[in-house]
């Protein structure tokens, strides 16, 4: 077992950057002969999980808890794209250190309200790649600043569950749509593209990034969430979560498919030089009896990353 870990844990995974000579080489599913497809084993695994997707005490309970942290990260990232408007006064010095607490708090509240109104005045269009049963897609569609969410997945059973569950909330009518579709087949462009907990389940993650980036509007944001390839990740996500505590079904994760955060940054540096800005990258850790929390060590375990598409 230790030898397996040692072989899998490397500083650089050449498969991540492996170019696609042709979409035919990436055929993993006969129904989706695309470079962004996945293996039939992965599709069967998630097909079996589909009926229990919305059971908050079932096999996907950890994902339900993680969704709270994912939404916090996304909303915080979006809020940070706005600054005070011309009518909101913000002192040009560290007002929290020099002004009375009540005054500093009043300034902070006014700034928060200004940014809140700017964000909530937006009508963002969102693409959720690998949406599964729709946990993230539903949460995003409920946000007042989101006008439309499209969720795509290769597993028909997951899409069926997502569509069925969405019907229970009338507020989602007209805002949320699902489709069994490969990423290559998606048309249009989006303000926000999410690719969460799915890169570690595909054979060519660089192709997912390439196509996801092409679907992003200028000024739009791509949010990625996956797992670093290190011994700690194997210990927490496979040995503890799958084998000991059985929080996650066996076979959900394969450490050889994990992607280091630095590899994704390197990919963007090589493929999108001058066209991207890494806005934020945070580590995420599950604490039993508490839930998921962010930390600053993004090179260990799970992580969230936000990348903005900027003009050249």
From TrEMBL:
Cofactor: Mg(2+)
Record-given protein name: Ubiquinone biosynthesis O-methyltransferase, mitochondrial
Primary location recorded for the protein, binned into one broad class: mitochondrion
Species this chain originates from: Lachancea meyersii CBS 8951
Binding site for S-adenosyl-L-methionine: 70, 130, 153, 196
Subcellular location: Mitochondrion inner membrane
One CC-aspect GO term: extrinsic component of mitochondrial inner membrane
Role according to the record: O-methyltransferase required for two non-consecutive steps during ubiquinone biosynthesis. Catalyzes the 2 O-methylation of 3,4-dihydroxy-5-(all-trans-polyprenyl)benzoic acid into 4-hydroxy-3-methoxy-5-(all-trans-polyprenyl)benzoic acid. Also catalyzes the last step of ubiquinone biosynthesis by mediating methylation of 3-demethylubiquinone into ubiquinone. Also able to mediate the methylation of 3-demethylubiquinol into ubiquinol.
GO BP, one annotated term: methylation
GO molecular function, one term: polyprenyldihydroxybenzoate methyltransferase activity
Superkingdom, taxonomy of origin: Eukaryota
């Amino acid at each position: 077992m230790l030898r397996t870990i040692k072989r899998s844990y490397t500083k650089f995974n050449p498969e991540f950057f492996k170019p696609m000579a042709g979409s035919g080489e990436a055929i993993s599913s006969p129904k989706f002969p695309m470079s962004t497809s996945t293996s039939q084993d992965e599709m069967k695994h998630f097909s079996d999980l589909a009926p229990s997707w919305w059971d908050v005490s079932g096999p996907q309970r950890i994902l339900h808890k993680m969704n709270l942290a994912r939404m916090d990260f996304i909303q915080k990232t979006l809020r940070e794209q706005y600054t005070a408007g011309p009518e909101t006064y913000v002192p040009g010095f560290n007002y929290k250190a020099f002004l009375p607490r009540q005054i500093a708090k009043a300034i902070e509240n006014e700034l928060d309200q200004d940014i809140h109104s700017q964000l909530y005045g937006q009508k963002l269009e969102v693409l959720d790649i690998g949406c599964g049963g729709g946990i993230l897609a539903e949460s995003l569609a409920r946000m007042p600043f989101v006008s439309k969410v499209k969720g795509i997945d290769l597993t028909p059973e997951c899409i069926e569950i997502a569509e069925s569950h969405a019907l229970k909330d009338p507020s989602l009518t007209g805002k949320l749509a699902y489709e069994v579709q490969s990423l290559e087949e998606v048309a249009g462009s989006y303000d926000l593209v999410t690719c969460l907990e799915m890169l570690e389940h595909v054979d060519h993650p660089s192709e997912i990034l390439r196509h996801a980036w092409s679907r992003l509007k200028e000024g739009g944001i791509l949010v990625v969430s996956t797992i670093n390839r290190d011994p700690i990740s194997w210990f927490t996500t496979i040995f503890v979560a799958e084998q000991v505590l059985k929080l996650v079904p066996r076979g959900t994760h394969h450490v050889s498919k994990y992607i280091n955060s630095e590899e994704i940054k390197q990919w963007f540096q090589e493929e999108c030089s001058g066209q991207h800005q890494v806005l934020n990258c945070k580590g995420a850790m599950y604490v039993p009896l508490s839930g998921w929390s962010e930390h600053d060590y993004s090179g260990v375990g799970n992580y969230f990353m936000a990348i903005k598409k900027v003009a050249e």
